[in-house]
Amino acid sequence: MKKTGVAVKKVILDYPIALFVLLAVLFGVLFVPHFVSVYNMKNICLQLCDLLVIACGYTFVELNAGTDLSCTSILAVGSVVGAYVMVFLFPEAPLLGTVAGIVTILFVGAIFGAINGLAVVRLKMPSFIASMATMLIGAAFATWFASFALGKTSIGGLPQSFIVLGGSGNYFFVPIIIALCMWGLADFLLKRTKFGRDVYSVGTNPKAAHISGIKVKKTVFWMFMLCALFAAVESILLTARNQAGMSNLGSTMFLNIVSAVVIGGTSVSGGFGGVRQTFLGSLFIVLINNAMNLIGVEWYTIMLVQGLLILLATILDYMVKNSRYRVKKAVKEE
Amino acid sequence: MKDAVLQLNGICKGFFGVQVLYDISLDLFEGEVLGLVGENGAGKSTLMNIVGGVLPSDAGTMKLGGREYKPQSPQTATQAGISFIHQELSLFTNMSVAENIYIDGYPTGLFGRVDKKKMYQEAGKYLEKYHVDVKNPGVQVGELPMGSRQMIEIIKALVKETKILIFDEPTTSLSNREKEILFETIGELKKNGISIIYISHILEDVLKLSDRISVLRDGHIIETKKAQEWSRESLIRDMVGRSLKQVYPTIEKTTGSKVLYSINHVSCAGLVKDVSIELHEGEILGVFGLMGAGRSELVRAAFGVDPMESGSVTIGGKEYARPTPSDCIQEGMAFITENRREEGLMMPKSVNDNIAMVMERNLTGKFGVIDSRKEQELTGNVIAAMGIKTADPKSQPVNSLSGGNQQKVVIGKWVATNPKIFIVDEPTRGIDVGAKYEIYKLLLKLAAEGAAILFISSEMEELMGMCDRILVMKDGSLAGSIEKAEFSQETLGRMAL
């Protein structure tokens, strides 16, 4: 009995958000009409896919106390350029077009990642500024490319083999599997590989990491690269879901991404957290959004609740950290 | 005889049970320069911090101008008329000369508007009075040479009607010409009735400049005499003259003839000048030098932490003109930094995480996956071998450990990779005697097993107890090399000063 108590305590210390997720589920089950239904469960899963992949990517830069404002621009640029490749360059070969589209979108992500990473590592730009520049350029490019170069706001007529990735009809499990694989990959990288250890070391104390022979610049570069590549994968999922390349894709998502990562429990000052926390954070954001949508509250109420929760999460993080030290101190003094 | 402006009476101070100052009594008279000399750690800075209100004293009283003086903070000290000119100047390089001079009390007009005209006028007057080579008070401080900056720092103090000026190593960053100007200014300040406490390692300057000189050693004032009655030799004798009181472990070891590591003609911008060192198998080679002599800068460049201007290092026969820490580690080196909180450890992370930091590079398999079972095993071994006292190595953050245990973690994370060459920079700073002994023992054991150790320290005693040979650095160059048979504090002191 005591053992389970300790285990529960440990889970709550490491994943304080778990408690909130449980409360959100409980709230949904008890008070929200239609919350418990096959249709809504499917919805929640798909909405989770829409957020989870990009939030996992963002976790990498957050672990280095950095930011990547451009990640939502990657969604938009990837979406329109990818759709263009599929619809206009390979109109006759849907399967080949799908592959080419996916590669193109990933390539778009890689370009963003490389620019952000090099600007931070080589030019020593704060990531906020570097990614703000790429965000603006990206958003402008996506709009120009779709509206002026092609004359449409959205590019429809994507090949069926691509749309499957969005989970239409009976294929709803496809994006879920992809999202879970990406999440698993991120977790594997962070927890099991040398690169992951380096991410935490550099995020905690870059000077000590440098002296310990860790290639700090390379590590930081790859954090931005991974963030961008994960965003590109999200772009693929969302474009397929919408069945069109859209120049405004994800334009309102940034706050949800940061909320998921921060509420999940990845430290804003770097070095602590991970994608397990981000999974719970994303799930939580999706649950409350879903529940409040079903109840029919206005969008500003959702914003208000989200803002309060970020505050609460930060305060909780601070308190948990302090109590963690206090517990350790008490142990030491005995 | 004029009146004493500042009187210290029986000042005592200790930190965490270590007594730093014992019953210090000192008088400072109006318009005199009092030189204060002593080794690193003799207590000079602590004493001046007490006078300047940075630290409270444990016991004793101070009188300023005949009245009780008990500064609560640096601000109250400044208000009472005591100003510091620090080693590192505290000027804002992005602001104008006048703004810097009035930084903590701008002349203001209506609604708190800064009266720029008045500020410039007043500042201009002072600049002229002390012949500072600045065209107008609107010039940015960043554009000025170090000498002028120092003068501005002094004027900043004078504006506040300072009666006592404390100089802490003011000449380290000045050219000879600038130094002359500074000394002329100090002469002028004296004439205006300002009293000066002058702290420096450059004994020639202290002898030339001071009216009286006090020697501080191990927290005691050894003697205060008129400057004419002192000589360079007598100053050094009083500064270092003490008996060895720490005990050092004895472990049989021999120094081999094989050179494991060499530093070849390394220079670093202004701090290290053409230094070459050869380090042999099984050798503990000490590097002694006063603060600012360039010892840490040298080894940091040699390990690739900071860039070197010219020169190279040879590790196990391979030459590196631009070493990186990663190269050095690959060749079997370890670097124990003097700054464990900022550069040695990830303070909020666990003992295990910290120890694993360096060894991980050897534990990666396919796709960079870390063999975590091996890692657990190795960290466990290190914790046991080093005797690190921790309740839960997996989750106890190192910032909750004692200083000695933290240092063991730093050394432990390096030992885990079995390096053959160690650079240790001030490995016993800020840790208690018991932990010191353990760290000495560990280093000797490593040397006995054939490792070569470059031991940097500012404590002579420690080096003499531990090393086979000691190199002395002064102003960025090697001033000499002393064999074990010839170790003495006097020789070391003479070479370093």
How does this model look, in words?
The complex is a heterodimer of chains A (334) and B (497). Chain A has helices spanning 2-14, 17-31, 38-63, 71-89, 94-121, 127-149, 160-163, 173-192, 194-204, 206-211, 216-242, 254-264, 275-295, 299-333, and strands spanning 154-155, 245-246. With 334 residues, chain A is mainly α. In chain A, strands 1-2 form a two-stranded antiparallel ribbon. Chain B is 34% helix and 25% strand. Chain B is globular. Chain B is of the alpha/beta class. In chain B, helix 5 (146-159) runs parallel beside helix 6, helix 12 crosses helix 13 (372-386) and helix 12 (351-359) packs parallel to helix 14. In chain B, a hairpin with a 2-residue loop joins strand 14 and strand 15 (318-320). A six-stranded mixed β-sheet of chain B has the order 6-7-8-3-9-10, with helices on both faces. Chain B has a six-stranded mixed β-sheet with strand order 16-17-18-13-19-20, sandwiched between helices. A four-stranded antiparallel β-sheet of chain B has the order 2-1-4-5, with helices on one face. The interface between A and B is medium-sized, with 27 and 39 residues.
In short:
The complex is a heterodimer of chains A (334) and B (497). Chain A is mainly alpha-helical. Chain A contains 14 helices and two strands, in the order ααααααβαααααβααα.
The shape of chain B is globular
- What is the makeup of the main sheet of chain B? 6 strands, mixed
Helix content of chain A: over 70%
Query: Unreliable stretches of chain B, pLDDT < 50, 5 or more residues?
Result: none
- Summing up helix and strand content along with how strands pair, one would put the structural category of chain A as mainly alpha
Structural class of chain B comes to: alpha/beta
**Which strand-content bin applies to the residues of chain B?**
25-35%
Tally the beta strands of chain B: 20
Total of helices of chain B: 17
Number of helices of chain A: 14
| Distance separating the two termini of chain A | 24 Å
